[in-house]
Structure formats: C-alpha cells, structure tokens
C-alpha cells in the first residue's frame, strides 16, 4: 500500500540549532511532494513543494527540503530554529494510485517545539 | 485577496441539529475539499470536488453532504449533528488536482471552523 510516514510525532530543538523533520513515502512513481505548516488556531500554509524539477527545494522562512528518490524521502530542514517556527508540520504527497480518495495523502504531522 | 474564507469560525450545536459550514474562494480554483482535523488523527478528507457540479466522497463522508453549484462556493452540510462530529473543519482549494494523475497544485486552506456538538 502506498503511504506517507512522518517519522517523528514530536521534535524538540533549542533556538538557534538545526531542525530536521523526516518524511518518507511509498510510491512506484515520482510524486508531487509538499510541506505545510500549521500554527495554532490557523489553517495550513504551504512551506514548499517539489514537482520534479530541482531535488533541493527552498521554501519560505528559511526552510528547505531535499527529494531523494533512492531513499523515498523528503525531509524538511532549517539551519537555525527560531521561536516562531514552533508549529505543526505536515508532509503531503500526491500519488498516482492509492493514498487518499482524491490522490492526496497527508502525514500525521510533526509537532515542532523550540526551547529557548 | 481573500483566498479561502470559512464561516463561521466557531459553532456549538446540540445533537440532532443541522447546519451548513460555508466555504468560498476567490482564486477561480477548480478543486475544493473539506477536511476534519482531530487530535492524533491528522487531517481526514470528507468530500471533494474537481469542478462545479462534480463532487465525490473522501475517507469519512458519513453524516455530511456537499454540493458545488458554482466554482467559488463549496458548502458542507451536517444533516443531524452527533458528538462524534466535534472537530475542526478545514476547507481547501487548489488550481487543479485530478485524482490518480500524481500531480497537484498546492492547497490553499481556510482558517477553519471549530465545531462542538453537545
């Protein structure tokens, strides 16, 4: 079965240290991949997207993600965490088959905690 | 540029009552969808639409109806509210998403409707 797995439900880092949020997917084809961020009491906002162009994708607020087909991964990184990065992060994959009814599959989310 | 607008922001219903959650987008997006978000369960798709006059069921459609008479609007109707429908509901739209084709434009989300059913 095709799926998206966010490997950590919670990640805690100190302000100023690097952030790594992990996402793996299962697919026979190269999908479209997205990372979204959700701040408390808000809707989801697009951070970045991969659609088969450059494998290293830069997004808003200093985040970037690297598509690694051999590892079926799309991990989200940021060199230096800021307090305002504290939020829930979702990896979303568009698959050619399987996944959600509309072809989109959401990960369960990773809660990012920033320690002062 | 309003984007995706959801109303109301908050709603409290009694069991058995009905109501409509409104969603409107001003980006001329063909694709619209409704999700519910519950703790520990991520976002679950309720219904979606790939264009005016076309709707389809998602993963958790029971107890909800939708219609898409215009490109802009995609209301979600709760027919007879139950406590299990207590949740935060998000509407989203994108320029296109054709299920099974493996490609999608990014989703634009509303700010959500927090519904409590007592």
How would you portray this structure in words?
The complex is a heterodimer of chains A (about 120) and B (about 120). Chain A is mainly β. Chain A contains no helices and 12 strands. Chain A has strands at about 5, 10-15, 20, 25, 30-40, 45-50, 55-60, 65-70, 75-80, 85-95, 105, 110-115. The mean pLDDT of chain A is about 90. Helices cover about 0% and strands about 50% of the residues of chain B. The chains are: A mainly beta (about 120), B mainly beta (about 120). The interface of A and B includes residues 32, 90 and 109 of A.
The tally of strands of chain A reads: 12
Quickly count the helices of chain A.
0
Distance between the termini of chain A: 41 Å
Q: What's the total helix number of chain B?
A: 0
Tell me which oligomeric state these chains represent: heterodimer
Quickly describe the structure.
The complex is a heterodimer of chains A (116) and B (118). With 116 residues, chain A is mainly beta.
């Amino acid at each position: 079965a095709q799926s998206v797995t966010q490997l950590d439900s919670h990640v805690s880092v100190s302000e100023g240290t690097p952030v790594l949020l992990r996402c793996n997917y299962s697919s026979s084809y190269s999908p479209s991949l997205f990372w979204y961020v959700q701040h408390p009491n808000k809707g989801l906002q697009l951070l970045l997207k991969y659609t088969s162009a450059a494998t290293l994708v830069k997004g808003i607020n200093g985040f970037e993600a690297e598509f690694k087909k051999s590892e079926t991964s799309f991990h989200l990184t940021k060199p230096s965490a800021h307090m305002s990065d504290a939020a829930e992060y979702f990896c979303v994959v568009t698959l050619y088959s399987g996944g959600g009814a509309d072809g989109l599959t959401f990960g369960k989310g990773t809660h990012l905690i920033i320690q002062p | 540029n309003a984007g995706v607008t959801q109303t109301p922001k908050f709603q409290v219903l009694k069991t058995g009552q009905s109501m409509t959650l409104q969603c409107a987008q001003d980006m001329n997006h063909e694709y619209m969808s409704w999700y519910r978000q519950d703790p520990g369960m991520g976002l679950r798709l309720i219904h979606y639409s790939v264009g005016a006059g076309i709707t389809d069921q998602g993963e958790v459609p029971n107890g909800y109806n939708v219609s898409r008479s215009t490109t802009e609007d995609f209301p979600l109707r709760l027919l007879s509210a139950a406590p299990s429908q207590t949740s935060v509901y998000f509407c989203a739209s994108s320029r296109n998403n054709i299920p099974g084709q493996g490609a999608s434009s990014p989703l634009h989300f509303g700010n959500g409707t927090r519904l409590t059913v007592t």
